Amino acid sequence: MEINFVTGKGGVGKSAVAAALALKRARAGFRTILVELGDQSYFRDYFSLPSVGYQAQTLEISGVKFDLAQWSGQECLKEYILHIVKVESLYRLFFENAVTKALVNVAPALSELSILGKITSGPPRNVGPKMPYDVIVVDAYASGHFMALMNAPTGLATAIRFGSMGEQVRSIGKVLHDANLCKFFVVALPEELPVVEGLELAGNIKKVTGQSSKVLLNRLLPFSQELNADLTAHAEPALKNFSNYLQELEARQKSMQERILNSGHEAQSLPWILSSDAKEIIERLSRELQA
Amino acid sequence: MIQTLDSAKVLICVGSGGVGKTTLAAALGFLAAKRGRRVLVLTIDPSQRLKTTLNLSDSGDISVLQHADLRGKLSAAVIDPKKTFDEFVARAANKDDLVKKIANNKLYQQLSTTLSGSQEFTALEKLYSCYESGEYDLIILDTPPTKHAIDFLQAPQKLSTIFNEGVAKWFRHSEGSGSFLSNIVHAGTKQVLRVLESMTGSEFMRELSEFFQSIQSWQAKLEERINSVHRLLVNPSTHFCLVTSFDQAKLKEAAYFGREIRKGGYSLTSVVINRALPSWLLETPTGFSAGAATPVAQKFNEMKNYYQARDQFYQTFAQGLIAEMKNKDFVFRIPEFDRDISNIKDVAELAHLIESNESL
Fold first, then answer.
1. Which backbone phi and psi does B66 adopt, to 5 degrees?
2. What is the CATH topology of the domain spanning B2-102+113-162+220-356?
3. How far is B2 from chain A (nearest CA, A)?
4. Hey, are the CB atoms on B310 and A245 less than 8 Å from each other?
5. Is A246 contained in some domain?
6. What pTM does this model have?
7. Interchain pair A163, B201: CB under 8 A
8. Beta strand segments in chain A, E
9. Contact (CB, 8 A) for A204 and A211
10. Mean pLDDT by 10 residues, chain B (360 residues)
């Protein structure tokens, strides 16, 4: 079992990178599921699908198939409770009363823990219904919410020390710490804010899970030698504004790459794919991703 | 937009993460202050650089920004959610020993920092207390980042469900001697709580019961506050500005959110499509196409095609949004800045762009 978490500041292209990673793993022959978190689907609009829900559906990109699902805390918790109480009527009673509703609604640690419980339900924990996958790619929340997700087992462990939930909390925490099971990807853009926030995030992931993240610097415009020579020679006076923009962009890209390199994190740059076709973008990105 | 900035008492900037909400809130504040109003910009968790840009301190103190163009007054402050919530509870509970007991409860510690709805509630609580102070003509609230913009408006209602009298009452029955469960009479309730206890342990149940007992003293005040905040939000002098970026999924989400805001009875009076087309493209004469086959010309054509394809999509979206907003002046876009915004001069320039870029 391999679990990949993809996070980063909002708007950096996390979802596209997560989809590309899922496609890459599926192409390599692994049974793969791409999971998005939360109540509303991003991929529904992105791939123009009729709907995306808790039940997995198959997505096909250039002949390669993988599953896609969207997991909300509510549904993950339901599945878990049903697994524990086993009796449907008791489960109904439990779920359809005001106390549980209020608690589930308000306590994100509970909802987040349920999601983590579902993500880590495969081996070695083997909790709940079996999932037929080798690889899970999680298109996770942005920075702050992602850390709330990672902190949920630790935070709740102080409040719930006993009972079956206490055990669950501890074993989920263990999986997150295991480098053979979980991998973390932080996506950033070659701009100040996403890079600063991304590096801070990678530091926080290390603090909470003990794990190193791979930083993916997304949307870099490739500059060929010819293009640079052309720019230096001011060969296109009619395109002065554009040339200035390119030169500023290249300088910014370089300085952001350097900043990431100096941070000591494992890193990779991904090209800016100038296409508006979702599947083409994912296909080309997946070819660029290393390892 | 100008009309909104001149007349609104409260302006709430909403939108999903990464669309440039905070920077835009600052620029709108600048513009209103430039036009003579006393403005306060409230933000949660801004980046370090924006803090420097706006001269903000971590302590939550209000700082005043200086710029030659400002005829009014531009102030800004960071909301500290934990501090705001603690202060609210201390005021509402009104008894020292009780406040201490609440603060030590592990569930409360979770509530004041991570429980969903509490950050949104504190943002609105801060907004309300600044509004009540009467020191400002306009308060601009930059809402906390939510995965989906709609979460922000639903948060206070979510929070109030936990303080619902019916729910809290169950746990208060446990006061007195004996185990927590033995005092509960209703069989169904007992069964539910037994499942909960088997999952979480008796220690957690004790904390839970203690928590519900201790909130008794301030839950009425919290509900009252949530109600007054709601009244302020639906007041016609409170305007909503929906910020979105030039991204297919974000634009679709914005359209959905726009409908939700209006359904809730709030006045959505502007939609900003941020970082639309890059300025180099806008500055290039329309119809211009680079003929030469040099690398720069090739790159220009490639990127121009890319942005034009996106623009076409944007036009379709904008027409739908304009039709829904029933007024084209409500929707406008701001070109992509070719650099990071890092000081008050950049904020001033962005404000100028907004001013000169009125409507589509």
1. -110, 135
2. Rossmann fold (3.40.50)
3. 28
4. no
5. no
6. 0.86
7. yes
8. 2-8, 32-37, 57-61, 64-71, 135-139, 182-188, 213-220, 266-271
9. no
10. 91 84 91 96 76 73 89 91 81 76 72 63 88 96 71 70 64 55 65 74 76 74 85 92 80 79 86 83 71 85 88 76 68 76 84 71
